Amino acid sequence: MCGGWKMSGGWTANQIGFNSEEVILTSPDPIRGLDEPTRKTFGKQKYRFDGRKERERYKLCWSARSVIYPELVLKQNHNAEYEPTDLFGVPTHAAFTNDFVNNAAETYPLPEDETPHPNTVFYRVEKLSVGEILDQFNSAMERIIEVARDKGALEGELDLAIDLTDWRYYGDGDDPMVLRVKPKKGTTKAFVLATVYAIVDGQRFTLKAIPVSSLSDKDEILGDLLDYAKNIVDIGTLYVDRGFFTVDCIKAIKERGVKFLMPATKNDRVKREMEKGNPRVVDFEYGVHRKNPVNFNLGIVENDDEEVKTFATNHEVNEDELEKLFDMYSLRWGIETSYRVKHQFRPKTRTKKYEPRIFLFLFSVCLYNLWVLVNFQVMKRFGEDSEIYMTAKTFTDKMIEALPQPEPPPTDHN
């Protein structure tokens, strides 16, 4: 298995289309090369960098693109005109320009005769089953996690967040995997992913995503995500929204010994507790009419706008700590910048077929993770205030520049 940050040895120039007599390439290390000249000529390709910042950004982005590509395999004949890595450039460009895949093929920064037609991309993807697509992206996510752990991004106790992410759909509501959701953007239909995130330096780093169908049980999906996450990180507190405030979901969390915090739905019994005043902590039994109810601490607290909020948690908390509990949820769950940014990495498509849609959906999750990981490396190496740090917009711009280019020349350390 190979990726831009873990390769050993080198790639020959023939492997990327140059004459082998010119030079042998080695994989770049994204945190080395600070003494590299600002201009270097390789064959007919000139690399021009405006100082260290641009040089390091380019190298990081070039390395980032090579992490997931090797894990994604498309079915094709041995004499196919394009390799899978060539085809992935088009949806990557669509993601980074937040454009439709068809449009991205027209604006792709390579000559027209070297750019795959979008129909070719979809044709290859549609030959994969949903199971094959999920297996490949599980492998790609594991590869990103491997790199993240190697770089120290998942060390120590980390808080988790689990939520449901939707991709709005305007086709037939009876199409496969389409769910009915709350009205938004002119539709009540969507494809949905359940996703578990580790909160890394204020950003949500995705550990796993599971497609949700009309037959999915929320507590089983929650349990699957937690089981996977427990093998990857040491869990601090799990943050979920009130959509998981059910007896079965809370049981699934408690059975795994995970600390959690979530808003409590204001049903009749919760409202009666609210009427008794605040701040208060109540040992609350939920599901009293069921054979096996579940217990948790119900926190009742008033925020700065004099709104009474209710939380469910298995943290031991005193009444004088409830405001801190409220702030904790707001700070951790409220990292909505990450949620909004994630949509900037999603290619658009008009296709109604599920296979290419779930492929692009998961592809965008991987690209978002790479952005988080690249900036983690920047902060670790150069500090939190480094000028090399990239916003989502800067990252997309630099990735577009690096996308069609060959590997940058190795650093001369002699």
TrEMBL record:
Keyword Membrane: yes
Segments crossing the lipid bilayer: 358-376
BP GO annotations: DNA transposition
Keywords per UniProt: Membrane, Transmembrane, Transmembrane helix
InterPro entries linked to this entry: RNaseH-like_sf, Transposase_11
GO molecular-function terms, A-Z: DNA binding; transposase activity
Domain Transposase IS4-like: 159-370
Record PANTHER family: THIRD ORF IN TRANSPOSON ISC1160, TRANSPOSASE IS4-LIKE DOMAIN-CONTAINING PROTEIN
Protein name: Transposase IS4-like domain-containing protein
Lineage: Archaea, Methanobacteriati, Methanobacteriota, candidate division MSBL1
